[in-house]
Specification:
Layout lengths: L1 E9 L4 H9 L4 E6 L6 E7 L2 H11 L6 E9 L5 H8 L5
Antiparallel strand pairs: 1-3, 1-4, 2-3
Length: about 90
């Protein structure tokens, strides 16, 4: 599974509608409204790099109200569960 984190700038008055439209796209697992210089963060989870292009370039970027995007591809995931397992000394 490939994960892409997409930073989305949207027209301010349309942020809720833009978020809902992006969340409805196949391949988008989550959309967060955030503070700061960007308006939304979308998580795209797909099987191939070509699918990232399809989801982001062909669909997400064309959602009415999307002004700009910046896509980051994740190459390694860390989670609390992974860290606990890595540092476990086997005492249960």
């Amino acid at each position: 599974m490939i994960t892409a984190i997409v930073f989305v700038q949207a027209e301010t008055a349309r942020i809720p509608e833009v978020a809902a439209a992006i969340a409805a796209l196949d391949g988008v697992s989550e959309v967060y409204s955030v503070t700061g210089q960007i308006d939304l963060i979308a998580l795209v989870r797909v099987r191939t790099h070509d699918e990232i292009a399809t989801v982001v370039a062909d669909r997400l970027n064309k959602v009415p109200g999307v002004v700009d995007t910046e896509t980051h591809i994740a190459y390694r995931a860390y989670s609390r569960h992974d860290l606990e397992a890595a540092f476990s000394i086997g005492l249960d």
